[in-house]
Design a protein that fits this description.
seven-stranded antiparallel sheet, 10 helices, 29 strands
């Protein structure tokens, strides 16, 4: 199975999904732990399984065994590897078969197994291989790409050894943990380490909140459990940070506090049922906080409100800053999606938000995210004003005309002031405002002409503001807030 690359962060090291089989030498752990992990390993090992997932269909020409230098120590290994799979020789055609190896663990003695979604992929043949060599065909009950989880079911002849989820929120940095899995296809292997960090964001999905550990996690460990010292599953091993594909002591696991709810939903419904607020958000940096009149950067800035979403009826607007959700502080924009998704659909939730410095509390009934992911059509408006041009904030501004709509391919329903030129030495250029963008608000007030923009900027200057908060849309209508320095 090939290494899955991340969306970003391609620097000296690369985030790698850890489910493929490759040969590499992991670095030895240098930390000293308890005198022995043997009792703990004995307690839980039989609940950990190897997952073999295969996709078959069509035919393809078989690959010949790679040509290796004579006497290489891997020559016999590769020869046996290819012989077992019927590769090499003269057979030109064979059924196409793609396979992967990963790990999983039993959470119910009747045969319920948890693993990673990327381990099974689109496989149509899934086999769970137990510690005693028993092989059972597995049925997919449900999977979730956002948290990279999948739930399988096997039919055993007798009750299976099962483990339970622990509370990952109680983990402290420095606590001992052990990882058990199927690294490089070698079968059940145990490694030990500590919790290195909490709440890691590795840009793998919308709910990144990984546990970081230095317990050796390698390719093939994907889907395997991370245990605390009580033998409870506190994480599902999912990814590593590595320039080589082998462990360098930085591995990531999905916290059990996030996984357990999703696993329950997949078992019961075969799909996820996440809460939905119906807003699009962005972060609040120091400059934006100053422009909004906040004492510090916090909360989630509302950059869009779905016309059919739960937030619309309670009067939430673009520019509001959500600072508390269901009694919990929203410290950053990353917090809110996880909070909302983990809240039951249909629950009445108290939301606290700031609007122009004033705090408002409202109760919203959450919808279902999976329903809300369908985009609502925006109403069209054909109104056009006569062209007027002005300069402000290092920008050349014009009212929107039919000619400018055609020139920049601006959506018909976008209203505001169009940017026709950006001073390359301005703060606006640093914030990546460009020609063809449409300014919809300045200082949280709508603008419909260049004169409106200059008037709002002058008012902000008089109020002692150092930055002007702009609501900017690109030509396709995607909006964002930008804090631009007032010079």
């Amino acid at each position: 199975m090939s290494l899955v690359a991340t969306k970003a962060r391609r620097v000296a090291s690369a985030i790698a999904i850890v489910s493929a089989v490759t040969l590499a030498a992991p670095l030895p752990a240098s930390a000293r732990g308890p005198e022995s992990f043997a009792d703990l390993a004995d307690q839980v090992t039989d609940a950990v399984v190897n997952i073999s997932a295969a996709t078959t269909g069509g035919t393809t020409r078989e690959r010949a065994m790679p040509q290796l230098p004579p006497g290489t120590p891997f020559e016999d290994l590769f020869e046996e590897f290819f012989k077992r799979r019927g590769q090499g020789g003269d057979a030109p055609q064979a059924p196409r078969r793609a396979s992967s190896l990963g790990s999983g663990f039993v959470i119910d003695s009747t045969g319920i197994i948890v693993t990673n979604n990327h381990v099974i992929g689109e496989a149509n043949e899934i086999t769970a291989i137990f510690n005693d060599g028993t092989r059972l065909k597995a049925e997919l009950l449900g999977k979730d790409a956002k948290l990279d989880l999948a739930v399988l079911k096997v039919k055993p002849d007798k009750p299976l050894k099962a483990v339970k989820f622990g509370d990952s929120d109680k983990l402290r940095i420095g606590d001992w943990v052990i990882a058990i899995g199927n690294p490089f296809g070698l079968g059940g292997s145990v490694s030990a380490g500590i919790v290195s960090a909490h709440n890691r964001n590795i840009d793998q999905g919308p709910y990144d909140n990984y546990i970081q550990t230095d317990a050796a996690i390698n390719r093939g460990n994907s889907g395997g459990p991370l245990f605390n010292m009580a033998g409870e599953v506190v994480g599902i091993n999912t990814a590593i940070l590595s320039p080589t594909g082998g462990s360098v002591g930085i591995g990531f696991a999905v916290p059990s506090s996030m996984a357990a709810t999703v696993v329950d939903q997949l078992r019961e419904f075969g799909e996820t049922r996440r809460g939905w607020l119906g807003v699009r958000i962005q972060g609040v940096d120091d400059q934006t906080a100053e422009a909004l009149g906040l004492e510090k950067a916090r909360g989630a800035l509302v950059a869009g409100v779905d016309e059919k979403g739960p937030a619309k009826p309670i009067g939430m607007e673009i520019g509001d800053v959500i600072v508390k959700f269901d009694g919990k502080d929203v410290k950053s924009a990353r917090d809110l999606p996880r909070m909302v998704a983990a809240t039951p659909v249909g629950k009445d939730v108290e939301v606290v938000y700031l609007r122009k410095g004033k705090e408002t509390t409202a109760t919203v009934k959450l919808g279902r995210l999976e329903d809300g992911e369908k985009q609502a059509n925006l109403a069209k408006d054909s109104g056009v004003e006569k062209p007027v041009a002005r300069k402000a904030l290092g920008l050349d501004l014009s009212s929107i005309t039919d000619d400018l709509r055609r020139r920049y391919s601006i959506k018909d329903d976008l209203k505001g002031v169009v940017v026709t030129r950006v001073d390359p030495n301005s703060s606006a250029a640093d914030k990546r405002i460009q020609s063809g963008d449409v300014i919809m608000e300045v200082g949280q007030e709508s603008v419909s002409s260049p004169a409106d923009v200059t008037k709002r900027v002058e008012a902000l200057k008089k109020d002692g503001k150092k930055s002007a908060l702009l609501l900017v849309a690109n030509a396709q209508g995607e909006v964002r807030f930008v804090a631009v320095t007032i010079e």
